[in-house]
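Task 17 of the worksheet. Students: predict the tertiary structure of the chain below and write it out as structure tokens. Keep your answer in the requested format; marks are given for formatting as well as content.
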Amino acid sequence: MTSQHPIVIAGGGIGGLAVALTLQQIGLSCVVLEAVRELKPLGVGINLQPNAVRELLDLGISLEELNSVGVPAQEWALVGLNGNDIYAEPRGTFAGYSWPQYAVHRGEFHMLLYRKVLERLGPGAVRTGCRATGYRKRVGGGVDVSIERADGSQETLAAGLLIGGDGIHSAIRATMHPDQPPIHWGGALMWRGTTRAKPIRTGSSFVGLGTHRQRMVIYPISPRDAQGMATINWIAEVTVDNPDEQGNMAWFEQVTIDDFVHHFDGWTWDWLDVPGLIRGADIAYQNPMIDRDPVATWVDGPVVLMGDAAHAMYPTGSNGASQAIIDARTLGAKMIEHGATPDALAAYNEALCGPVSELILRNRGAGPFGLLNLVDERCGGQFEDIDTIIPADERAAFMANYQAAAGFARDALNAAAPTIPVGANVAG
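Model answer:
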């Protein structure tokens, strides 16, 4: 069976749904193919940087709706092994951005986008139980998309354009780059969970604690209740020696707390009890920290990659979901300029592939957590006065360089024109 759609989006994750909403906003028709039979609110905490929040607001998603799935972040901080601050800065509107930064529950945010797609594009806009398995470019233009349904049956969709937003294991990317290296794992294992507890510091702080080989990341993803409690997202991370590239690749494998909490014995200060926080979780999940080597291009004529399919990266910069949203909006902007054509995909590729590929490697080098590496190298993580280890201007410059590379340097973002002007559409 073969049917026709103007634009097919492979993958109904955050990036795929964001691009579907963008295409609808600018007057284009599309269909989303999602492998799972039923979308559910999976995952734990993620951050949405101000550049992504700006785009969500421009898509008509309100602050009230974002508040229903997360909480505005006030502070980003790195702390050494002795509990002393290495670096701290305000975030979002607290730092003078015109838009907030949000810490959200990934699954609840995903469901918010899903509801918006169904409301605006109709119930048939997302075809669940349909996995895109590859593509073939058509003579004269367009692309045939191969689909496998959940029941094992096969189908082909003929489309004008194909947007591959099908994640780190992307079949679209594998078709475009059949000789790509395997998924890269540098040896870092993460254990993730959530605990109801009192938030630390400002009450809405993102805190990285430890060293580059062993650290905790802690931040709330809900407001405080009447008892002062919030849902605290935490990530416990340890880097192992001599990683086996083929091992530890299970994604979100459920584990018991006793499997890993011993790594953080003694991580207790008057303001934080790390073992107690971890043990307060009902369940925990183990993940390898993985990414993919950058590729030379994200485009193959009428086919383009976005999100993790294009640039799966270590979560050290807290910008994976944000970049997927930026991808979606940039694609929309280029289609306004060039129409729903391969030229628009090429212009998107020209704008983002090079800079974001550099960001992949920067995050692999620890991203903003690279300050922990410097502290570890210079003093083993123990210090009384951080200014004697890394001067304040060096710390500030390090963070400013990362923010610029990630596309959310404050002054540049505040001064930037909207990616898609109000009322703009492909028809003119």
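Marker's comment: The two ends are 35 Å apart (CA to CA). The chain has a mean pLDDT of 91.
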